[in-house]
């Protein structure tokens, strides 16, 4: 496996919908178009998309495999992985 640079925490633009319980939400990536992944995450891990305040986002850990697209580690019990696009990533400030 190629070496990866880890970024402690990033925002991933996504669609956020109600979850089954009051402390969770359903997160779907990407925010528009065909869903690649949809999972339940803690409500506390979501927020407003920081780049232009136009949507929602989930806090993720980001892996950048050498020569490949970035991979987000979603905040699920299983640490779900999803390949993401650079345009959907923002650093946490």
N-to-C order of helices and strands: EEEEEEEE
Number of domains: 1
Query: Roughly how many Å is the radius of gyration?
Result: 13 Å
Q: Which segments are poorly predicted (pLDDT under 50) over 5 or more consecutive residues?
A: none
β content, as a range? over 45%
Describe the structure.
The chain has one domain. The chain is 0% helix and 53% strand. It is built from no helices and eight strands. Strands 1, 2, 3, 4, 5, 6, 7 and 8 form an eight-stranded antiparallel sheet that branches.
Characteristics of this structure?
93 residues, mainly beta, globular, 0% helix, eight-stranded antiparallel sheet, 8 strands
Question: What layout of secondary structure does this protein have?
Answer:
Elements (H helix, E strand, L loop, with lengths): L3 E15 L5 E6 L7 E6 L3 E3 L7 E10 L5 E3 L7 E3 L5 E3 L2
Antiparallel strand pairs: 1-2, 1-5, 1-8, 2-3, 4-5, 5-6, 6-7
Please sum up the structure shown.
The protein is mostly beta strands and 93 residues long. Helices cover 0% and strands 53% of the residues. It is built from no helices and 8 strands.
